[in-house]
Structure prediction request, 213 residues.
Amino acid sequence: MKNSSPYRWIYMTLLLSMSINLVNCGSGGKDLPILNRQIEKDGELVYKTIPSFSFINQDSQLVRPETFSNKAYVADFFFTSCPTICPKLAQQMLKIHDHFEAEPGLALLSHTIDPKRDSVAKLAHYASNLGVSSERWHFVTGEKSELYDIADDYFNIVIENADVPEGLDHSGRLVLVDQEKHIRAFCNGTNPDEVDQFIVKIEQLLAEEKKVD
Prediction:
């Protein structure tokens, strides 16, 4: 597992602040910018993508990048017993789910950060209480190290912290990923006003991808 020190939280927050400033200064075009950093591959600069993953959802189905073939998706991190920000996140994700109910080009992906307690059955119960199905919204579990490692790739911060309720601390970012597995936007998922702006960006991305198709 990657370093889970609280200092990483500060470091990641500074990096995200720098990314936001760069986007605000350089996103004058019509399309949403790609927010992933660039790396060199075969002598060319290319944008990083969300790495390959394999998790299990609330219906015991395997969820991989291929699950989102020809789809954009919104990702977040949560756990079912979270007493603080997770209920707010769930309501805002549900708002996105309902807003795009008739849109086949968008899915939602919620990763538990508490796989020890969040069994498949518990995730299924959680999804049922929200009134959603895995056709549109996947609640996934898997190896703890893999869940924590991939959080970094989604601009989310997940750490174990004995000083907070349930011993788990995490950021509440919602992240928009396009069909090519690039991050195109993110927001504070506990702030309804930011989520409303995020919905506009999702609409913008979907329109962009339909033009390409």
